[in-house]
Amino acid sequence: MTNEDFLIQGPVGQLEVMITRPKGIEKSVTGIICHPHPLHGGTMNNKVVTTLAKALDELGLKTVRFNFRGVGKSQGRYDNGVGEVEDLKAVLRWVEHHWSQDDIWLAGFSFGAYISAKVAYDQTVAQLISVAPPVFYEGFASLTQMASPWLIVQGDQDEVVPFEQVKAFVNQISSPVEFVVMSGASHFFHGRLIELRELLVRNLA
């Protein structure tokens, strides 16, 4: 796969973006991936984010990772999830402008799973992928009727997002959802990233 790293215009300045294109046949699908919490070291180079990118690459998708405002080369400052939603919408508009015929998949890990779910709730996409979604965030409870197909992946030994809370949230979802549990996996999937990639490929193929 090949990578391109550059800047696009965001709501409060430039956003750092990385596009990865698959080696083989490229489908007319673009996956946009959101990183974990900016105030806790989250960037587009987070290992779970790059694992998501590798999985989508294996499926023939081009992927777009980006840094939220205030992270890396992206301008601005952290905005409690409000501005970060606008950042994702800006990236989504950029993708739709450049690849207008593509289906869009949104994916995110932890904080990024919250942001991508918020946007997918307002704008239906071809696929939503949430890894370790922080369902205890204010506003997550209102996302139980998602028009987009939804895959949720959760480790049952997550030390940040309690497994039972995610399970309870999934049980409240009234729209189609696939809930996959990785037994023994922690929040950051330490030592389990290859297994996570294989799981994603298997469930999204």
Please describe what this structure looks like.
With 205 residues, this protein is an alpha/beta fold. It has helices at residues 47-58, 82-98, 111-122, 163-172, 193-204; strands at residues 2-10, 13-21, 29-34, 62-66, 103-109, 127-131, 150-155, 177-182. It has one domain (2-204): Rossmann fold (3-Layer(aba) Sandwich), CATH 3.40.50.1820. Helices cover 31% and strands 26% of the residues. An eight-stranded mixed beta sheet has the order 1-2-4-3-5-6-7-8, sandwiched between helices. A hairpin with a 2-residue loop joins strand 1 (2-10) and strand 2 (13-21). It starts with a strand and ends with a helix. The relative contact order is 0.15. Keywords: Hydrolase.
Describe the structure concisely for a colleague.
The protein is α/β, with parallel strands linked by helices. Helix content is 31%, strand content 26%.
CATH domain class name: Alpha Beta
Number of helices: 5
| Mean pLDDT, all residues | 97
- The quaternary state of the protein chains shown equals single chain
Instruction: Count all strands and give the number.
Output: 8
CATH A-level architecture: 3-Layer(aba) Sandwich
Placed side by side, the strands forming the largest sheet appear as 1-2-4-3-5-6-7-8
Helix content: 25-40%
Query: Please, how many domains?
Result: 1
Low-pLDDT stretches are: none
Distance between the termini: 18 Å
CATH topology: Rossmann fold
